[in-house]
Amino acid sequence: MSATGRFFCADAARSRDDSIVGTAPYGSVWVLIEYRGGWPVNGFDGLDLDPGTKALVFSAAQAVRARVLLVRRHGRHAPQGPRRWAVLRYEGTGAHRRRWGTWNRDEDLAQIAQALGASGEPVNSGDPGAPGEPSDPGVPGVPGGPDGRPVVLVCAHGLHDTCCAVRGRPVARALSERWPDLVWECTHVGGDRFAANVVVVPDGVYYGNLDAGSSVAVVGEHLAGRVHAEHLRGYTDLFPPQQAAVAAVLDRFGPAGRHDYTVAGTVRDGDRWRIRVTGRPPGPPALDVEVRARRTPQHRLTCRGPATSSAVVYDAVSVRPS
After folding, report:
1. Is the pTM for the entire model greater than 0.85?
2. pLDDT digits over 180-220, tens only?
3. What CATH number should be reported for the domain holding residue 224?
4. Is residue 20 part of a domain?
5. C-alpha distances in Å from residue 83, one per residue of 42, 179, 182, 193, 320
6. Residue 266 backbone dihedrals phi, psi, to 5 degrees
7. Is the model's pLDDT at 125 over the cut of 50?
């Protein structure tokens, strides 16, 4: 509870020291739709759009398990001109696929369904040394996405959860001041109690428990090709115990590039997993990580509802060279 007696789920999670490891939702395709008006509590689903176009986009996204997010630039002064949309796809090689477009009328969003049905344009991920990528992540005037650099999303969906606005907007402000062309506020991404949440797409990396200062440091490191274990919720192409295994390796051996470690094998035995993680030099070539699952006591996990529930936590209990 706050000093005023109001419940904030992120404050409660920090007081309990809730683990953020292994909490990134699974997925590899994202649809971003710039929407400058008020966001409904349920995001895209609640928009008053042309029914046929809306159904078309929803069906196409569902077919490839894409997540549809509304986005906007931070600040009160809305940009002028057509609104943008994007379809971003993660690929394990780092040569992600992206397609961007603009829309003025609802019917223009039908292009999203077409893009979801196509392969998209292959573009390098922005890791250092990737061909055609600018070496300085702070270069001004480079649009977020079409040039191949990641898009940085900050959940600021206050109508969905108060903490997303209270903690997300200061982070969006700080990141937008540093990288104005890469950063967008977005609707709900999951894990309200870990606000402020930042998702880098199409890299598929979730960060949580951020504030203005830590977010600039974390995103700066990410853009420079170094993912740190601190604040890492997980990689979206991995399942929770695998996310926990990679986080444990990063914690022990230090930051590494998004694709420097690969999950090569997973064996489950009840509430335990043995996960083989292989790495690129100079990191260790192969490691066996044991991960154990446990369930927390019942707690109130979001601001919006009084209901309580438990969460599954994934602990890495050992990291050994294989």
Report:
1. yes
2. 999 999 999 999 999 999 999 999 999 999 999 999 999 99
3. 3.40.30.10
4. yes
5. 20, 19, 15, 30, 50
6. -140, 125
7. no
